[in-house]
C-alpha cells in the first residue's frame, strides 16, 4: 500500500515505531572536526539528514565495529547476550544492496549462517530512502546497485509531503492514519560520475597482477584501513580475547572490523606476508570488489558504488579511479 | 536460532609429546570424525584461536603437532595432560584418499608440513595393500628438528623413504633440501600416481617447479595451503585468494586449482 503524509505525520509514525524499534538514519553529527552526516539513532523525521552522503556506512547496525561474541568464565564459553529490540534502518539503495552483500558472506558463504550477524540481521527492518540523484562521488548505476527491491517500507523524503510504499504488512498499522495514494519508489538513472568496469577471465590474472597501475594507485597508501572501515560491503574481521580477571580466568572474546588494506591482514606465522606491499593489497581489494565476489556469488559486484572509500582516504587515493584505469588498461590490451 | 559456528567446546588433553624444542604433539580426548588433512581451530580463553591440522587420530583421541611461533601456540605449550583445550572443527578439505588408492603415491613434506600428512602415512602403513607404492621425502632443518622419530622408523620400513637434513648428512639422513631428492622418485615407472606436497610456501613453490621439470602433470599434484585464518568458516575474509576461501575450498587443493591462486 502507498501512503501520503506530512512531515509531522511521519513524526507520529516514527514515534509509534519507536516504541518497538530503535531507528537508525543518517543524521547530523558533531563528532570529528567539521559537522558531518553520520548514521545514528533518531526519533523524529527532522533528525534525518538528507543533504549529502553519510560519512560512514550503516553496516554497524548489523555488524558492529567491535562486538563481544563470547564471555568466558571458569573454563566455559558463553554467547554474549543479545539486544532484544528490533532495528529500523533508513538506507539508500546502495547501502541496502550493500547489506545484501554482507548477507552473502555471513549467511550463505560456506553453507553456514554466522550466529552474531544473523542475530542482528533477523531484527533488522529496512526503510528504503528513494534516491533519484545521488551525490558527488557516488557511482551506484555503474555497478548496478542503484535499485533495491529488498525493503519493508520505501519512502520519498525531502520534498514537502512524504510518500511511503509499505511492502511488509506488519508495518501497515503504523501508516493507517495516513492518506492512501499510489507510490512506487523510482531509481536513479545515472550518476554524475561513471566508472567503467573491467571485463576479464581468470587467464588474464597474471597479466593484471603485473600492471603498473596498482603501484601507482597505492604509492601513498599508509595502510590505515579507513577505506575498508567505511565500506558497506567490507565484512572482514579479527577476533581478540580480553581478560577481566587472570585468577578466575574470566573475560571475553571479541571481534573487530579488519581490512585487507592493513599491512598485517594476511600476515602468517613466520612473518611471511602473502601480499607484500600496498600495491598488492590495492590490487587484491579492487579485484575482489569488482570481480572475485561476483565470480563467487553471481549476485552483482561487491562494490555498490557509494564512493565513501574515495571520500575518506587521507591520501586521496581513488578506488573508483583505479577500477576505471583497470578497465582502460584491459581495453587497450585487447 | 541456528548453531553457533564460532563457539569452541572444551576437550581434555591426554598427553604431550615433545617432538623437538619448538614442536610438541598434543593428544586430545575427542571422538569427532575427521578426514585426513583437515584442521581444527584450537583456542585458549584469554589468548585466542589458531588453525592446527590433525596430525593423528585414534580410538577416542586426536593429535595436533604444534610449532611454537606466537601467542596461541605459546599458550598451548603451557598446557599439560589433564588441562582443557578448546576446539571447534573439523574444517576444510582433505587428502583425496579414494584418488590415492591402488595407485603409486609420493608424499613430500618440509618441516612441520609432515604433521598434516602423518595420519595419511599411518593409514597406508596400516593398510599396505591400498597403494601400489609409497615414496616419502621428509625434509628437516637439522637433526634437532626431526619430527615423529617413532613413526619415521616405521615409515622407513613400510615405504620408500628419504629423510633429509638441510645441512650436512647424518646416519639415516641425506643432505640437502627435499627438492634435490625428488628426481629419485621413479615417476617414469609409475602407471598412475599422485603427489602430495606440504611445507613452507617457498618450499612448495620449488617442489612444484621441480615436479613440473620432471614432467609431472598438474592434476597429479596435491598441496595444502597455510593462510592467516581467524574464523575457518568463510566469514572473516583473512584466508581469501580472489574468490577462493582457503578455509572452505582448501587447505588441500589440486594443483590445477592451486597454480592459479595468486595472492
Ligand atoms: C589449515 C592450517 C593448518 C595448520 N596446521 C598447523 C599445524 O599442524 N601445526 C602448526 O604448528 N601450525 C599449523 N598452522 C599454522 C598455525 O595456524 C600458525 O602458526 C598459528 O596461527 C600461529 O598462531 P599464534 O597465535 O601462535 O601466532 P600469532 O601470535 O598470531 O603470530 C602470528 C605471526 O606474528 C608473529 N609474531 C608473533 N608475536 C610476535 C611479536 N611479538 N613480534 C613480532 N612478530 C610476532 C609470528 O612470528 C607470526 O608470524 C596451520 C595453519 C593453517 C592455515
Ligand atoms: S568499495 Fe568504495 S565505493 Fe565500493 S561500496 Fe565500498 S566504500 Fe563504497
Ligand atoms: S584509506 Fe587510503 S591510505 Fe588508508 S588504507 Fe585505504 S587506500 Fe590506503
Ligand atoms: S579463515 Fe575466515 S574466511 Fe577463511
Question: What does it look like?
Answer:
The complex is a heterodimer of chains A (334) and B (263). Chain A contains 10 helices and 12 strands. With 334 residues, chain A is of the alpha+beta class. Chain B is of the alpha/beta class and 263 residues long. Chain B has 2 domains: 9-91, Translation factors (Elongation Factor Tu (Ef-tu), domain 3); 97-258, Nucleotide-binding domain of ferredoxin-NADP reductase (FNR) module (Rossmann fold, 3-Layer(aba) Sandwich), CATH 3.40.50. Chain B has a 7-stranded mixed sheet, sandwiched between helices. A 6-stranded antiparallel beta barrel of chain B has the order 1-2-5-4-3-6. In chain B, strands 13-14 form a two-stranded antiparallel sheet. In chain B, helix 4 (149-158) links the parallel strand 8 and strand 9. At the A-B interface, strand 4, strand 5, helix 3, helix 5 and strand 11 of A face strand 13 of B. FE2/S2 (inorganic) cluster binds at residues 229-232, 234-239, 245, 247 of chain B. Flavin-adenine dinucleotide sits between chains B (39, 48, 50-53, 65-67, 69-73, 112, 115-116, 226-227, 229, 251) and A (267, 269-271).
- CATH homologous superfamily identity of the largest domain in chain B: Nucleotide-binding domain of ferredoxin-NADP reductase (FNR) module
Name the beta content range of chain B: 25-35%
Topology-level CATH name of the largest domain in chain B: Rossmann fold
Report how far the terminal alpha carbons of chain A are from each other: 51 Å
Unreliable spans of chain B: none
Over the alpha carbons, how many angstroms does the gyration radius of chain B reach? 18 Å
Secondary-structure map:
The complex is a heterodimer of chains A (334) and B (263).
Chain A: E1 2-5, H1 7-18, E2 21-29, E3 36-41, E4 66-73, E5 76-79, E6 86-91, H2 93-108, H3 115-121, E7 124-129, E8 153-156, E9 162-166, H4 172-175, E10 179-180, H5 205-209, H6 213-218, H7 226-230, E11 237-245, E12 250-257, H8 278-297, H9 308-312, H10 319-333
Parallel strand pairs in A: 2-6, 6-7, 7-8
Antiparallel strand pairs in A: 1-9, 1-10, 2-3, 4-5, 4-12, 8-9, 11-12
Chain B: E1 9-18, E2 23-29, E3 39-44, E4 48-58, E5 61-67, H1 71-77, E6 84-91, H2 97-100, E7 104-110, H3 115-126, E8 133-140, H4 149-158, E9 160-165, E10 174-175, E11 193-198, H5 201-213, E12 221-224, E13 240-241, E14 244-245, H6 246-249, E15 252-254, H7 255-258
Parallel strand pairs in B: 7-8, 7-11, 8-9, 9-10, 11-12
Antiparallel strand pairs in B: 1-2, 1-6, 2-5, 3-4, 3-6, 4-5, 12-15, 13-14
The structure holds flavin-adenine dinucleotide (FAD), iron/sulfur cluster (2 copies) and FE2/S2 (inorganic) cluster (FES).
